[in-house]
Amino acid sequence: MTLHFIAKDPETNGDHCPTVWFDDMTQEFVIQGWKADEALRLKCLESGPIPDNEAVVRLPARMIDVLRKVIEVADRSPVH
User: Fold this and answer.
1) How does pLDDT run across 9-50, given as a tens digit for each residue?
2) Which of 7, 46, 58, 79 has the most CB within a 10 Å radius?
């Protein structure tokens, strides 16, 4: 696995904050975010089931530049 750290939420203190990585071997975005509360989870279920091995997480909109950066890293990945 080659996991590339992209960035943490720029407006947190560095602990317990949303973080984004890219794994160029599996071609996956790896996201650490805040767990969805029950109301959000139920709203998401309106679109279909959430398997036990998946989760709904939230990222603040202020991380849009981080998401753009991880997409750029994925585009440059030699595997895809």
Assistant:
1) 988 876 778 999 999 899 999 999 999 999 999 999 999 999
2) 7
Short-list 58, 56, 61, CA closest to 42: 56
pTM: 0.83
Closest CA to 79 of 24, 23, 2, 30: 24
Question: What is the pairing mode between strands 3-8 and 28-32?
Answer: unpaired
The gap from C-alpha 42 to its chain's centroid, in whole angstroms, comes to 20
Residue whose tokens read 């160029």: 24
Closest CA to 33 of 16, 13, 51: 16
